[in-house]
Amino acid sequence: DVYITVEGGPGVSQEARTAYARGAVVVPLMRTGGASDGMFNFPQGALQKPSLCTEEQWALLKSKDAPVEQSATAAAAFVEASLKAPRAKRGGAKFRGGLAEHIASGGVDRSR
Question: Which residue has the higher pLDDT, 97 or 3?
Fold first, then answer.
């Protein structure tokens, strides 16, 4: 699963935390502010550049000065790369911060 966040308040932040905790890719359009830029206890791991996203793409997701079209193109490329990648390389807490726990559990996804 891939979630794209745009601005947002506490509800967006809660949805992003839930999605991220279960291993979904969260694509925050940080340039829009609010939850997507780290407010309201947004998952900090989702605000770190994942390996599937280039430095340039990540910078465009952050930059308030970049043309919107370039940021949108960067977000689309990141989503496309995430959907094509094997699940273990996508991101989310289960596969980033929680990788050790995931391996320790034998790689079994018990959340389903």
Answer: 3
